[in-house]
Write a structure and sequence with these properties.
By secondary structure, the chain is an alpha/beta fold. It has seven helices and 18 strands. The mean pLDDT is 95. Bound molecules: flavin-adenine dinucleotide and FE2/S2 (inorganic) cluster (FES). Flavin-adenine dinucleotide binds at residues 36, 38-40, 57, 135, 144-145, 147-150, 163-166, 168, 171-174, 212, 215, 334, 336-337.
Amino acid sequence: MYMVTLQGTQEQFECKKGEPILRAGLRAGFGLPYECSVGGCGTCKFDVLEGQVEMLWPEAPGLSDRDKRKGRMLACQAVPLEDCIIKMRLDKECIPPVLPVNRSVGLIERYKITHDIEAFRFKSEGPAIFKAGQYALLTSPKIEGARAYSMSNLSNDEGIWEFQIRNVPEGLMTRHLFDQINIGDKLELDGPYGVAFFKNTGRDVVCVAGGSGLAPMVSIAKAFSEDPACKEHTLHFLYGARTPSDVCGEDMLQELAGFGDRIFYHAIVSNPETLTQDEWDGPVGLVHTHIYDVLDGNLQEYEYYFAGPPKMATAIDTLLLEKYDVASSQLHYDRFF
Ligand SMILES: Cc1cc2nc3c(=O)[nH]c(=O)nc-3n(C[C@H](O)[C@H](O)[C@H](O)COP(=O)(O)OP(=O)(O)OC[C@H]3O[C@@H](n4cnc5c(N)ncnc54)[C@H](O)[C@@H]3O)c2cc1C
Ligand code: FES
């Protein structure tokens, strides 16, 4: 066990051998800034002032060449080799609402959602406690590094963790999940993580999902549906699919109280080259270009949650902030690196 000290404060936390600094800090309740936990976004950059620290994945794309030259590291990939002092600003938005815990989970069920997305249900010994929209890190001893997957269900005492995972043909973890693990097999699950979780702010809600970004948005729609304080509010759920065969999620929302009255589903297909009128007569284009029409103006009145490819998240962020002047505090998103 090593001690990590945050420069300029009396704050310290313990970090197990081999444990990334980010996870140890969040487990201790500190608001270390982060987003993806998997080396992609660069939000968790920090400087080492004293002590030896090693990057588990030195090529992680979240670090630029300039960062590397300056000796910066990513807290989600950095493990201490001795006690150390680091320079990293804290962010109270990142204080975990539920402290992450590492546990073993067993696969209990899987089924198809679309031609390339499957639901995977795991069970842990204790309860599955998390906020709607958060994710967990899955690790297998056969694969280098953890992978983030968002829960599609709600917190529960039965220890059920449900994921909706897209089959990435060359992806190491998805190949493992789709081809190698069977019912009863165990994986390591660490979580919950993520700051883009549902908070009832008294505003109407917009959820935008692209591709496998479906899972956290379904979880948020479930939380909205069950929250008595949201009864007078509406939720618009936009799903951006590449082709008609990728469209999904409506059946999951149809099961929710309020569907059709205050919960509305809109699918948008982006790849017109594959379309004939028989296949698809709904809206066409990139999902963010339809937000204005769906909401019929008044974009500043809503709380926005979105998840999916980084390009989609950036397009929504730019559109809402720059074109429609929505406050950044109303935008909550996960980019799936
Ligand atoms: C916050 C978040 C939530 C996500 N939620 C979902 C979801 O609900 N459903 C879904 O289908 N996908 C989700 N993803 C994407 C998912 O985590 C994987 O990126 C995807 O499944 C591809 O993984 P792979 O191993 O199959 O592909 P690969 O191409 O083998 O791996 C890509 C991923 O692994 C990481 N990685 C690669 N090499 C290393 C290494 N040596 N050490 C450490 N990390 C490495 C990369 O940062 C990247 O995240 C999410 C991603 C993020 C960041
Ligand atoms: S949180 Fe470390 S790179 Fe994204």
